[in-house]
Amino acid sequence: AEAEAEAEAAKWAGLALVASVSSAARQQLVDGGVSEELLSLPAPLLCSQLREMVAARAAARHSAVRRLRPAETEARALVLSDFATLAPASAAPFGPPPPPPAGSPCPAVLLVLARFREDVSWLARLPPGVEYHVMQKGGAVQRELPACRQTALPNVGREAHSYLSFLQTVHAASASAAEAARLLPPLVVFAQAEPFDHNPAFLDELSLLAAHVSAGRRPPRWVPLGLWSGGERIVYCDASGAPHQPLLLPIGRVWRALFGEGRALPAWIGFTPGACFAVCREALLRGLTPSRVEAALSPSCGLGGLEADPLIELCLALETTCTCTPLSVDRPRTPSCFTTQARVPRR
Questions:
Q1: Inter-residue contact 129 to 105 (CB < 8 Å)
Q2: Who has greater pLDDT, 177 or 326?
Q3: Fewest CB atoms less than 10 Å from the CB: which of 93, 125, 127, 317?
C-alpha cells in the first residue's frame, strides 16, 4: 500500500511542478480535487503537500487500510451515559465558575455561533441555563443583539476560524488558564448559525445538556450534536478528507501545526456534520492553549483560507477527543477509535 501510494503521489507532484506553465496540468490538478487556494502556493510547498494528500488518499483505497476504518453506526438518540454522572462539576481541575452577579443566573452552557447572514431570531427560544455569543462575519454586528454577545470578524475562513477566534479572545482577556476558565461556563457548544439543517432537535438536545450541567453533574468532555442523513453522528474520512470531501484537504499541515512533528497522522479521522458539537471547559482549555490557538490561526495552518478549511474537530485539536467518553448514543460507549493510529505514508 505504501509503495502504491508513493507512486501515485509522485505522479501528482510532477504535475504540480509544471502547473504554473501548463494549463493542461493545472486543469488536471483542479479536476483531481486541488483547490485554487492550494494551487496559489509556491511550487515546492504545493508539491510537498500534494504528495502527502495524494499518498493518504491512495493508501486509504488499499484493502488493509480500509479494514482499519471504524464502523459508522446509526445514532439518532442522544442519552447521557452513566460516566457523566460520576462526579459533580465542582470536581473539575479548574473548579466551578465564580458566582454570578446578584440577580443573574449562572449559565451552564455557552453557545458560540459562527454566523454570516443567517437568521438567528431562534436565539429567543434558547432553553434556560444557556447563553450565546455570535461570531459575526456578515459585515457588521446586529443591532438587535447585545453588543457584549457578539464579535465582528473579517469574512475569511469558515466555522473553525470563527470558533478559534472566539477562544483567542478568551485567552487575550485572561492571564492564566484558571482565569480563562472563569470566563467560561462548564460546557461550550459550537455551532453554525443555522444548526437545524443537521439536527432538527438541536434545541431539545441543548436543553438536555443544560439541565444535566445545571444539576451539578460533570459535563461530558465532547458531544457530537450534528446528524448525517443516515442518522450517524460520527463518520470517518482518510487523512485527505475522502470519501466525504472531494477536494484534497491539507489535514497533515493542520495536524502538524497543532500537534507538532512527533505525533503520527492517523489513517482515519472521525468528524461530525454541521460543525456542531459540545466541549467541556477543561478539555477545551487543555487542548487549546494560547500557543496552539495562535498556531491554528497562523497562515501556515491554513484555517483562514476560503476553500480548504479542514475538519472542524481536528482544527479544535482536543487532546481528549481521541480517548474521551462523550454522551453515549443508544448505550454508553468509548469512541477509542475516534482516530485510528495507523500511520499514513508521508515523505
A1: yes
A2: 177
A3: 125
Alpha-carbon distance of 31 to 189, in angstroms, equals: 36
- In this predicted model, what pLDDT tens digit does every residue of 73-105 receive, in sequence order? 655 444 444 334 333 333 333 333 344 444 445
C-alpha 198/C-alpha 205 separation (Å) is: 13
DSSP E strands in 157-261: the ranges are 187-192, 222-224, 235-238
Query: What 3-state class would DSSP assign to 58?
Result: helix
CA 77 to chain centre: 22
State if pTM tops 0.85. Answer: no
**In contact, 108 and 127? CB cutoff 8 Å:** no
The pLDDT value recorded for residue 85 is: 38
Q: What is the pLDDT of residue 123?
A: 96
C-alpha cell at 102: 446578584
What pLDDT, on the 0 to 100 scale, is given for residue 12?
A: 86
Q: What are the sequence ranges of the domains in the chain?
A: 2-66, 82-340
Length of the chain: 347
The grid cell for 259 is: 500537534
* Amino acid (one-letter) located at 260: G
Strand partners, 104: none
Spatial distance between the Cα atoms of 321 and 239, rounded to a whole number of angstroms: 17
Alpha-carbon span 40 to 53, nearest angstrom:
16
Locate 255 and state its grid cell: 495536524
Question: What CA–CA distance (Å, rounded) separates 256 from 265?
Answer: 8
